[in-house]
Amino acid sequence: MRAVKHFRRLRCHRWKQSGHIALWRYKERNYDGWHLTADANGCESLAALIEAMMVDGPGASRSIMIERPTRAVRSVPRSPEWAITVPAAWQLSVGADISDWRFPETSEYAELCIGADWLPLLADSVRSIGRGIGDYSIGDTDGGNLPLWFWR
């Protein structure tokens, strides 16, 4: 009898990004952390990825292509002229510890590893951008990790 291997197909690996998603850090330290905004399609797309990660659980991981925020977006926190750092991409993954929040300061590639406890709040926060809600952050800033700010 031939053995059949079953591989777990992760839902997040079938995810297709749509819309515009911007992620950046200010070089000035007035707004410490990472900053996120997206258009309506980007919000729904990113929230769908996060929900797929809730199902997939620890080990789920996906790269998100990001764009440079426009001057208008940077004006929302009243900082259109401040220098920013925009990473090439954003790696989002689910950690084994349900309370994980690891979002270190990096310049070329942003990596957020979070536990299952953070996923629903992250999905709700992403959707809040599409509803015009912003100017708040989430995250555990212990151990050199940065918060994630949401901007409409």
List keywords for this structure.
152 residues, four-stranded mixed sheet, five-stranded mixed sheet, disordered N terminus, alpha+beta
Task: Note the topology.
Elements (H helix, E strand, L loop, with lengths): L20 E6 L7 E5 L1 H17 L4 E5 L5 H5 L8 E2 L3 E6 L6 E2 L6 E6 L4 H12 L5 E3 L9 E3 L2
Parallel strand pairs: 2-9, 5-7
Antiparallel strand pairs: 1-2, 1-4, 3-5, 6-7, 8-9
Helix pairs in contact: 1-3
Quick structural overview:
This protein is α+β, with helices and mostly antiparallel strands and 152 residues long.
Describe this structure in words.
With 152 residues, the protein is of the alpha+beta class. It is 22% helix and 25% strand. The protein is built from three helices and nine strands. It has helices spanning 40-56, 71-75, 119-130, and strands spanning 21-26, 34-38, 61-65, 84-85, 89-94, 101-102, 109-114, 136-138, 148-150. The strands form two sheets. It has a five-stranded mixed beta sheet. It has a four-stranded mixed beta sheet with strand order 3-5-7-6, with helices on one face. Helix 1 packs antiparallel against helix 3. The longest helix is centred in the N-terminal third of the chain and has 17 residues, at 40-56. The N and C termini lie far apart (58 Å).
Order of SSEs: EEHEHEEEEHEE
How many distinct beta strands?
9
How much of the polypeptide forms β-strand, as a percent range?
25-35%
Class of secondary structure makeup = alpha+beta
